[in-house]
Amino acid sequence: MVLIRDLVIQGAQMLLVLLLAPLFTGFVRKVKARLLRRQGPPLIQPYRELARLMRKEVVLAESASWLFRVIPYLIFAATWVAASLVPTFRTGLLFSWSADLIAIIALIGSGRFFLALAGMDVGTSFGGIGSSREVMIASLAEPAMIMIVFTLALIAGSTQLSTIAAFMTSSAVGLRVSLGLALIALVMVAIAENGRIPIDNPATHLELTMVHEAMVLEYSGRHLALIELSTWLKLILYVSLIGCLFAPWGIESAAAALPTLAVGIAAYVGKLAVGGFLLAVFETSIAKMRVFRVPEFLGAALMLGLLATLLRFVSESF
Amino acid sequence: MHGLDFDVAHLLAGSLVLVSFLELYQDRLYALLNVYAAHALVLAASVAWQAFIQDAPHLYVTATIALVFKAIVIPVALHRMIVRLGIHREIDKVVGVGPAMLAGMGLVALSMVVMLRVTQEADPLAREDLAFALAVVLLGLLMMVTRRNAVSQVVGFMSLENGLVLAATGAKGMPLVVEISVAFSILIAFIVIGIFLFRIRERFDTVDVQALDRFRGERR
Amino acid sequence: MTLTIVLVCAVVLLTLGPLAVALGRTNAATRLVYGASMVVSAVSLAAATVYLVGAPAPESITLPVGVPWIGAHLRIDALSAFFLLVVDLGAMSASLFALGYGQHETAPERVLPFYPAFLAGMTLVVLADDAFTYLLSWEFMSLTSWALVMSHHRVPDNVRAGYVYLVMASFGTLALLLAFGLLAGPDGLYTFSQMRAAHPSAALGALVLILALVGAGSKAGLVPLHVWLPLAHPAAPSHVSGLMSGVMTKVAVYGFVRIVFDLVGEPDWWWSIVVLALAGVTTVVGVLYALMQHDLKRLLAYHTVENIGIIFIGLGLALAFKTHGMNFAAALAFTAALLHVFNHSLFKSLLFFGAGAVLAATGERDMEHLGGLIHRMPQTAFVFLIGCVAISALPPLNGFVSEWLTFQAILLSPQLPAWGLKLLVPAVGALLALSAALAAACFVKAYGVTFLGRPRTRAAEAAAETDPYSLAAMMLLAALCLLAGILPGLFIDALAPVSNALIGAHMPAQGGSQWLSIVPIAASRSSYDGVLVFLFMIISGTLAASAIHRLASNRLRRAPAWDCGYPDSSPATQYSATSFAQPIRRVFGTVVFRAREHVAMPPPGDTRPARLLVELHDLIWDAIYAPLVVGIGFAADRLNRLQFLTIRQFLTLVFCTLVVLLLVLAVWS
Fold first, then answer.
1. What residues have CB less than 8 Å from C507, skipping those under 6 apart?
2. Which of A147, A175, A294, A306 should we substitute to test contact with B (largest number of B Cβ atoms within 10 Å)?
3. Contact B43/B162 with Cβ under 8 angstroms?
4. Contact C548/A222, CB-based, under 8 Å?
5. Which subunits have 3 or more CB–CB pairs within 8 Å of chain B?
6. Which of A96, B28, B217, C479 would be A162's cystine partner, CB 3.0–4.6 Å?
């Protein structure tokens, strides 16, 4: 009985993030448009985009290999598994102990690895631009993320995401300096990893400003649909991560009663709304950075993460 | 662990260190002034919180002085000075952002080690605040050392003084008269530096320290 | 019993050398030597595995060869058995690979005699139980590998590589000689069991640590003693490169572990600081150098330097924990380091074999002349991809597991009381994370430029798939990578007797964990389940594929690449290795390599192409080795005057020496 309930909750979590991901992106686009005094596309436009892409035929470059066709499925698999393990409305998910926060980050990293390979596969210069810039950004964003994980693990005493989330909801956590630094660093890394302004412009049509778009330039049809869905899943993963770590109100452990489920889901949707709104405001109010300012930005995030870890090493009360 | 007082005090002191790092990151003068205003704001908040938990009303005066003078008056005055002198708005750096950040990290680590070892028997809140304060002082010095622009050196000097104020309030029992005299001496120093900047600018048409060295006859 | 089997295998390998000389250049010689090496290594591997997973009790034997009053002591215990396993697995796969690759060898009489001798040398180093046998086997291993490096001696780069290798290897052996001399003491206690019983003072122990770091570290590839590695490893034939990078460096790690964890006794608190600092620098510097390379084998060799850094980070952490009595954490760090030893030997050999296959098929080592090989060598491309994913520490393969365990060990370090460690360990953690991300970048570059895209030269267009033996060897290693990633608990349990012997504790038994996960410390703290992650990925991929199959259109059309409307048929417009590394070169390289780019732009109207010149300085060579070479040259020139003295001056020299020695004798007694 308990096993069935846990399985249902885990399955519900997986489906929820998958279904909400396009809606979240649509919400962010709508808010951005409204802030720029435009009407903006309807909220369900991303679902329509996916449907349209699925209907179209795939136009494959002559020099593309079998790897090019398999990579969208690999990326989707890695991102969906990672997104399923981040607690959204419940902690203590059935399979949460199979991959801790470091493994989740590495899963996202493997998605990025294959995407960069896809950029190199067709043998055009635009793919190369995207891949080389993406790995440069990743070479700084990933260590910053690991430092944030260290800080959280040193505070909560575990790298398991469920344990950290449960610790954050309890009263044992105070307002720690290192948590503040980790939050700022996590927001910076999340912006970089998802290719939002100021790192990359997700709506650009200028090839020389592209990072993510340049890597997927040659994809079309159902492959492109999968890759777009994976990108949206990654965004909702990061927002859920920030929500469950730093705004854990409403998340109960898996053993709690059923009414708290409704509260949890409502709280989660509320957090997504707030996060999406803040993201849209941030993107509208800042300009995209030159490519070689990005290492300074991410270097600052790495330093913040390192400072937070250092403070925890030095004293328990930080 | 020690309750909300401890944590909020730590949070504010840590934010001061964070804003010092942010000052190191800036490369435009107006943005630097805004960050310095934020620095003074966080200092005012920190001092006010210390006044609250130590039950020392004279520290509220210190907080008000910090807020009025350092967060409002001085940045506005510096802003006016930049406009009148027509100083170049981009900050020339001796070392890039990356190495400066790394050096800043090293300085924070150093101040942690020194302060936490030297003050083994003291009250934990005061110890850790002192460690943060020393870090702010060292970061202010780093800013003065790695910037070529005279205005940014002034800002570094001011943030150094902010660190000293943080140390003094954290150590419990800094009398008001000391704070007033310190504040006034800083103000005098500031006015003197301002006057000198005007004179130098009149004579040499620049306030770039490297160019000034050439005029002193010291070739590098 | 196990020891006898392994020794007999080593002796058989030694006899294969002269046999190869006798058979000369015949085709049968290649097949016979490699085939026999493969079988013998397999037997030895089986014996070592059976020994390790059973309850390993040390066995020793003393042979009446060598120095008269000492003989040759040989011993097998848990540590030797593990490293023997690594050596034999590498040897077996290299021999299998060479059965096919050896057919392309142009000078087999220069390779075949030394190959089995190299294998025998490595085996004997791991089995040695006294200083003389150890040093003799170590030198034998170095000399045979030097001979293999010099096998293509008409290539001028190889001559320089061999020279540098010989000098560095001799220097390393000298350091080890001094270390063993210090451990033996004035009474001449040369056997390891005697050294274990003696307890050296703190100063002596410190000196031995430094000498062991220099001696074993130079063979393993610690910065700044790594300079021979990227020259020598690529120069040798590819199966030997794989052995040198994947196995010989691990034998050096064995030497370090044996001396510092076993023979020298109780470590001092600051030893771990030195090891960790060196290891952290090695990790980042190695991978940055690798990113700047466009020679495929040199890239892999520099990458070995990075992985040796990761292993030494684990060993340094184990030392730190052991010094402060935290044996359980020390066991975790030690197991992480040894697991990485095993994993690295697997995927580095795999990658070098892949590079050898590419070299045999196209004749090119330079990535800038390759490309599009995934269409022409599909199976090689597939196993090389597995190697790249494994070395980039991505789940569900094995590189991720050892890196994850190292991170868990780092997270236990705040309990260490020493201040130096409190500041150093988070910095080392950041360096480790940085090098992991850079390694992934490096292998996107290596795989993307070599196998993906379009062929850049005729040679790349004309490539054909490799022979079945090479493929079999690579597939075996790829399968082991996957196995070690999915079922790491098996390997951790196999390592338990090793850490028990050297640290006094071992990680909790992983066999009983639910769903085959690994739990390094406690279930509430952290766990990782390779099987489940792998299954989940397969399930979600399959779900996605079936959903797409059902819901989406399945039409597909081939067309020229979109390329934003500017399709260019020339493959020269695609990204090369140098251009791929440009952003990282600009971010990190301007400081670490003084990298500068110069563009020579012709004036408008001129139809000549613009030229881009990339300038990279090897700062370690310029700062340490170049002045050393100049200094030695200077000293040699000065001392050369001793050749041209008159007879009277020579006699004066002899007379002065005699007088000085007599004075010393008079004063001392």
1. C331, C332, C335, C492, C495, C496, C499, C520
2. A175
3. yes
4. yes
5. A, C
6. A96
Are C591 and B117 in contact (CB < 8 Å)?
no
Q: What is the DSSP letter of C10?
A: H
**B41 lies in which domain range?**
2-211
Domain count of chain A? Answer: 1
- Residue A219's region, left for phi above 0, alpha for psi from -120 to 50, else beta, is beta
At which residue do the structure tokens 């979600």 appear?
C540
Q: Residue A6 belongs to what domain range? A: 2-314
Q: Is B218 inside any structural domain?
A: no
Residue B122, domain member (yes or no): yes
Chain B residues within an 8 Å CB radius of A176 = 7, 10-11
Closest listed residue to residue C135, CA positions, set C255, C263, C3: C255
Q: Which two tokens stand for residue C440?
A: 């992934």
Q: What residue has token string 């399930």?
A: C539
Q: List the structure tokens of C124.
A: 């004997």
Instruction: Give the Cα-Cα-Cα angle C370, C376, C380 (nearest 5 degrees).
Output: 85
Q: How many CA atoms lie within 13 A of C388 on its CB side?
A: 27
Q: What is the DSSP string of C547-608?
A: HHHHHS---EEEE---GGG-----GGGS--HHHHTHHHIIIIIHHHT--EEEEEPPPTT--S
Each residue's pLDDT, cut to its tens digit, for chain A (318 residues) gives 778 888 888 888 889 999 999 999 999 999 999 999 999 999 999 999 999 999 999 999 988 999 999 999 999 999 999 998 888 887 777 777 788 899 999 999 999 999 999 999 998 888 999 999 999 999 999 999 999 999 999 988 888 888 888 888 876 677 788 888 999 999 999 999 998 988 888 887 777 778 888 899 999 999 999 999 999 999 999 999 999 888 888 777 766 677 788 888 889 999 999 999 999 999 998 888 888 889 989 999 999 999 999 888 887 766
Q: What does the pLDDT look like over C274-291, one tens digit per residue?
A: 999 999 999 999 999 999
B66 part of a folded domain: yes
Decide if pLDDT at C139 tops 90. Answer: yes
A163: chain C residues, CB-CB within 8 Å? 524-525
Residue in this structure with the two tokens 């500068």, named with its chain if needed: C596
CB neighbour list of residue C263: distance below 8 Å, 6 or more residues apart: C183, C192, C195, C196
Residue B217 lies in a domain: no
Residues in A closer than 8 angstroms to B128, CB to CB, are 315, 317-318
Between CA C506 and CA C495 the distance in angstroms is 8
Query: Closest by alpha carbon to B154, among B75, B211, B80?
Result: B75
Q: Which tens digits make up the pLDDT trace of A255-284? A: 667 778 888 888 999 999 999 999 999 999
How many angstroms separate the CA atoms of B154 and B133, rounded?
Answer: 19
- For C164, the token pair is 């540098």
3-state class (DSSP) for residue B205: coil
pTM of the model: 0.90
Query: How far apart are the C-alpha atoms of B1 and C94, rounded to whole Å?
Result: 58
**What's at C224, amino acid-wise?**
P
Separation CA C96–CA C45 (nearest Å): 14
Give me the residue label for tokens 């299998």.
C96
In terms of CA atoms, which chain B residue is nearest residue A184? B18
Q: How many CB atoms lie within 10 A of CB A91?
A: 25
Residues from chain A contacting residue B8 (CB–CB below 8 Å): 175
Nearest-by-CA chain B residue for C420: B113
Inspect the interface and report whether the beta carbons of B98 and C423 lie closer than 8 Å: no
CB contact under 8 A, A113 and C371: no
Please report the sign of the dihedral spanned by the C-alpha atoms of residue A186, residue A189, residue A194, residue A199. positive
Residues ≥6 apart with Cβ < 8 Å to A167: A155, A156, A157, A158, A173
